[in-house]
Amino acid sequence: MSTFSSPRVRAPKPGIFSQQTLLILVGQDRTPFHVHPTTLAKTGFFEVHGHPPTAAEKEHRLQLGRASATLGMGTPPTELKQEPGRSRSSSRSSTVNAEQRSPINAASNSTLEDYHLVNHVFEPAAFEVIVKWLYNQPPGVPGNRGQCKTLLRAYALALQYSIDGLQDAIVENFRIYHQDFDLNFDDLVWFINRFGDDLSYRAVPMVIYLADQTAYELTTHGYDKFVAKNQFFQRFLTTGDRPLRAIIFEALVNLARAPQAVDPATGPNRWSVAGSTNNRSQPPTDEMEVIEID
């Protein structure tokens, strides 16, 4: 298994086998996860969301909630963030059904959370992929569209938290999935939309892989058949000004230059994080195990 990048933010002092964990609530349903701070410190989690609140800060928030309830105002609602960050909520954790719990996300309803993560990427199923990976449980190969979407969200989180090994594992799972199922172009569009105006996605291995798979299926299935299954693709080509079109065009050119077309889903895996800073100037062939990418 690939190792994580070295931590750049110090975690609280308890050791890795300490019972002390951070309570992280995910999504509007506030699904709870308990994670050791030293485990999170192996990722970029604290760089993204900041240090966890101190015991004094949590006690202050708890007292504010109790005071509000005493005055008949009820517990203040949790602020739902549109961007990742720490919760400033004064509320307690909401009740979660027993069937929603698991060994890695069982939580006490009386414990004030350390973080509440809410936006379009922070769905509980995707965050569970992150937590399981941190505790040595790799993700499985998706079997349907819903699982593909969950893995894409998990990849977006792994990218944000600099978890290189998980990014590589998810790309490989998509490659295995595409050996049996055709690509859905909406996956690529959804993913790049997460970046807004930030063009750094052009060097993201998942983006490059999906673009290469798009080029391969366009050339092998034909334009009409591809568009019949991906109706948005035609509008994507003819309207707006999307930089992603240059990536797809580059993938088509590389495929045209290759002596023989190689299915990205079955050929050598060229979409690792470690290789994403290299030069992507050579077309793929059966003989090449590594293609440099920019």
From TrEMBL:
Residue span of region Disordered: 68-105, 265-294
Domain of life from the UniProt record: Eukaryota
Composition bias type Polar residues, residue spans: 95-105, 274-284
Name of the molecule in the record: BTB domain-containing protein
Lineage, broadest ranks: Eukaryota, Fungi, Dikarya, Ascomycota, Pezizomycotina
